[in-house]
Amino acid sequence: MKPAVKDNIFKLDLTPREKIAAAMFALGATRKELARRLFISENTAVTHAKNIYNKTGCHNLADLTRNVIAEALRIPVQKIDNAIKNYALEVGIARIIFTAFFLAINVYIIYIETDELARARGARKESKTKGSTARKKDTYYV
Q1: pTM higher than 0.85, yes or no?
Q2: Which among 14, 33, 11, 15 has a CA at the least distance from the CA of 24?
Q3: Is 8 in contact with 71 (CB distance < 8 Å)?
Q4: Are 64 and 19 in contact (CB under 8 A)?
Q5: What are the residue ranges spanned by the domains of the chain?
Q6: What pLDDT score does 125 carry?
Q7: How far is the C-alpha of 64 from the C-alpha of 86, rounded, in Å?
Q8: What angle do CA 18, 72, 26 make, to 5 degrees?
Q9: Distance from the CA of 9 to the CA of which of 39, 120, 121, 129 falls in 20 to 30 A?
Q10: What is the b/e burial string over 121-136, where b = at least 16 CB atoms within 10 angstroms of the residue's CB?
Q11: First-to-last CA distance in the chain?
């Protein structure tokens, strides 16, 4: 069982090479790119990745990236997590308001169209009830 993600991964016993590898992974480098840039074999890059995940307790690249960012900014990981949650909440609230606004507009448009349709049908019924003397040009078609 892996330990929980630590507050600050660079205070752990990562080697200098593992710290570089962790930063490169956080920046989006693949294991193949890491091997090429650090002049190591791909197997060594895989070993670095395994060691980084085991030592930090990170379960995926997102965890590792948050920890690297927190270390780079010298702030606790919880502040990064809170910032992400607040961003998601703001985006969610804005999306809800935006959706509600357009839903209200659509309801209003449907109401207007329904009202116009009802008036048009009423006019057509009136033209049909004029009697047998009603001419074809007096009939409204929708």
Answers
A1: no
A2: 33
A3: yes
A4: no
A5: 9-75, 92-138
A6: 62
A7: 20
A8: 50
A9: 39
A10: eeeeeebeeeeeeeee
A11: 71
What is 9-75's CATH topology?
Arc Repressor Mutant, subunit A (1.10.10)
Q: Mean per-residue pLDDT for 1-19?
A: 65
User: Which tokens is 24 given?
Assistant: 């490169």
Most confident of 2-11, 31-40, 93-102: 31-40
Q: Which DSSP string corresponds to the chain? A: -PPPPPS-GGGS---HHHHHHHHHHHTT--HHHHHHHHT--HHHHHHHHHHHHHHH---SHHHHHHHHHHHHHT--HHHHHHHHHHHHHHHHHHHHHHHHHHHHHHHHHHHHHHHHHHHHHHHHHHHHTT-TT--GGG----
- Taking each helix axis from N to C end, the angle separating 42-56 and 16-26, rounded to the nearest 10 degrees, works out to 90
Q: Kindly list the distances between the CA atom of residue 128 and the CA atoms of 96, 131, 132, 142, in Å, as whole numbers in the listed order.
A: 47, 7, 9, 13
